[in-house]
Amino acid sequence: MIKKLLIILIAVVSASVVFAQKVQSPDEFLGYKLGDQFTPHYRIVDYFKYIAQASKNVKLQQFGTTNEGRPLLAMFIASDENIGRLEEIRHNNLRLAGIESGGAAIANAPVITWLSYNVHGNEPASSEAAMWTLFDLVDPANSTTKTWLKNSVVVIDPCLNPDGRDRYVHFYNSVRGAVPDANPTAREHVEPWPGGRINHYYFDLNRDWAWQAQKETQARVGLFNQWLPEVHVDYHEQGYNAPYYFAPAAEPYHKDITQWQRDFQVTIGKNNAKYFDQNGWMYFTKQEFDLLYPSYGDTYPLYNGSIGMTYEQGGISAGLAVLTRSGDTLTFAQRIAHHHSTGLSTIEITSANAQKLLDEFKKFYNNSRTNPPGEYKTYVIKNDNNNNINALAKMLGRNGIQYGFGLANKSIIGYDYFTGKTEQYSVGPNDMVINAYQSKVVLLHVLLEPKTFIADSNTYDITAWALPYAYGLRAYGVKASLKPANTNQSITKAQQPVNNHAYAYVANWQSVNDVRFLAALLKKHIKVRYSEKPFEAAGKKFAAGSLLIARASNDVPNFDQVVTQIAAQLDETLVPLASGFVDKGSDLGSDVIRYIREPRVMLMAGEGVNAEAMGEVWHLFEQQLGYPITLVKYQDLGRTHLSDFDVVIFPDGHYDDFPSDKLQSWIKDGGKLIALDNAVAELADQKGFALKKKEEKKDDKADAKDKETVKIYGDRDRDAIRSMIPGAIFKLNLDNTHPLGFGLPNYYYSLKLNDDIYELLSNDDGWNVGTIKKNSLVSGFAGAQSKLKINNGLLLGVQSIGRGSVIYMVDDPLFRSFWENGKLLFSNAVFMVGQ
Ligand SMILES: [Zn+2]
């Protein structure tokens, strides 16, 4: 007994000895002063691990891993009293939001402040500031921060984009001289392609919060939604000539952002300003960074009841020192100091208003559940496409949005997103039903409202994203509050039929999942065909594009087993056919049944190519379809054997010295070129490519008015808006009898990011698959001049050249990887066209 007590005593004493020791600052730990050099990510991780050992007031959690294998970390910092009850605090906070039910509120619940650093890899000052801020919070000698922690839990994510950060840091460290060169034209201030801003797949992680296309975002937002902090800061850097930016944000604000959220941005901003004033540092607020697009690190938290903010230090490409326009030398150390200051200032003002923040957080969620924003209290999404519904369900689920299926009352009156009519509709048992009376309704409303309310069109980003258009699913907004009949959040699926001697198997072609299935078959060298026309067999109707996997020419052992296994793994429904003699349409041996060659695909990469656009294609192939793709630098195209490839993809970009002759002869021999976005514009100027840019229609009235009016210098931003499309949804007419339109209805909602439009191709030249008529704007903002321009033209076309083809896709169908239907459209270009 005494021995046992002694052991306990020793344990207690030694623990207190360990913790009473001085905690090393980042400078002491790293062996250099913060700002003297860039800290590689693994050393930041080391410091966080060291603090996790050295301080009893922290808990370090690895919540994920990047594509390149680096850890994603969150450090929780709390008082002696709170650090042992973090789980209790978390559950309590979710109860405040009504996301978890039951249980009395805990006494002295702390407010949660979450600081997110370095989401853009080449904005590196903030991760260094993260170490400093962490040190101040755990330093036993710091009594000020101890006071704040009495009623605060602070969460520090030191680096949201470790792969991007290291790309930048390795670049800089590998080219810097013995002394940093402040001359802005020096090599160390010019990052090579693709730059460190983006993650491994070249995605901008600060455009991905709601969509969660990337694994870093999935992991982080997963953790975020388990906590729902009351305050969230997203740390950035901007061009180095700009002074520091912090809240309050610029207009437009989404109308669902509450007065309290607006007001507290001002409170925080004023506290930050206090320290900047004391130090004589320059800053600005209320400009440039607006609050609309839902996938930012400020708006996403705002739509989740938090005070979400972006802080921006001037510093992109600034290296360790750079000469600014005003003749000052901006150093890395200064940039770090500013971010450190706003971090502490934010924790301070949050702590000073802790109870009010908690009360308002609770109120935000109470209001959500009792008085949801928007006209519609129920959203019904038709299950015309089971895989797309599943994809949508997954996305909603990741955001904590509740949904179910079917209605007791099978008939509704609702607003039809696709026709704009309010009529009576019937609801089936597998149609998705989302009731607005729920905690996450603000986010739900922002993602689902048919038209985003825009107070001022001068926004930083796209102005339309309503999910029914992105997923191509018919949807209705219903004013009555209706509850789903089945709240299981899953659709009951029919059992896979077992058949050991099918003549052929048929699978649908209408979703990314179907493409993934095709990719898996092709990788196993199983021969797949598609039907160019609809047909009926085995008592079922099959649309054009349906996949046929016939026993014929698939002389592989265990053919049935292999095919059904792949289908089962990918949750793909197969229909076995006993005979090639179909009930209606063409038999399986007919020439409308086309054989799908296993395409060898090349993607243009490198200087001149829009890295994000390229990354969308790369990610789709590797992570979503699981199909091989070869990335070739555009500069190396001249010495590449094109005959090794069947498909070459040109993403958005600028292509100087385009090797037109080489590509033309490869296409004539059967090659397929896919051009996207600005690559289409580049091809339109080249010999042999038939596409012609549409001449701009002159608005005579506006022109005359322009001539009469003296241009006002102060209005120049507003004038530029007339010819702007920051991202709006347009409806295209789609020829879905053409393979490029397979699996889609005879229309397609396209997210337009510019006002590019082309003349229709002549019948000799090719096919006008996606065309646009007058008044096709469905949702979002388009300037008056642009609206005039975008009518009667081509947005999706296929030109035949010899045995090959060129596919023109004027808008980027893979933009940020959230336009689900765009992925099918693009896959049609890769796998279906020209077979
Ligand atoms: Zn940034």
> Which residue ranges are poorly predicted, with pLDDT under 50 across at least 5 consecutive positions?
5-17
Largest sheet: 10 strands, mixed
**What is the tally of helical segments?**
25
Helix amount: 25-40%
Ligands (ions, cofactors included):
zinc ion
Topology, pairings included?
Elements: H1 2-20, H2 26-30, H3 41-54, E1 58-65, E2 71-77, H4 80-83, H5 86-96, E3 111-116, H6 125-138, H7 143-149, E4 152-157, H8 162-175, H9 215-227, E5 231-239, E6 244-245, E7 250-253, H10 259-279, E8 283-284, E9 290-291, H11 299-302, E10 307-316, E11 321-323, E12 329-331, H12 332-352, H13 354-370, E13 378-381, H14 386-398, E14 404-407, E15 411-416, E16 422-426, E17 432-435, H15 441-448, H16 467-471, E18 475-478, E19 484-486, E20 504-507, H17 512-523, E21 528-531, E22 535-537, E23 540-542, E24 547-550, H18 559-569, E25 575-577, E26 593-596, E27 601-605, H19 611-625, E28 630-633, E29 647-650, H20 660-668, E30 672-676, H21 678-684, H22 700-708, H23 716-720, E31 728-734, E32 747-752, E33 766-772, E34 777-779, H24 784-789, E35 793-801, E36 804-809, H25 820-832
Parallel strand pairs: 3-4, 3-5, 5-10, 6-8, 7-9, 27-28, 27-29, 29-30, 30-36
Antiparallel strand pairs: 1-2, 2-4, 11-12, 13-17, 13-18, 14-17, 14-19, 15-16, 15-18, 20-24, 20-25, 21-24, 21-26, 22-23, 31-32, 31-33, 31-34, 33-35, 35-36
Helix pairs in contact: 3-6, 6-12, 10-12
The structure holds zinc ion.
Zinc ion binds at residues 120, 123, 206, 236.
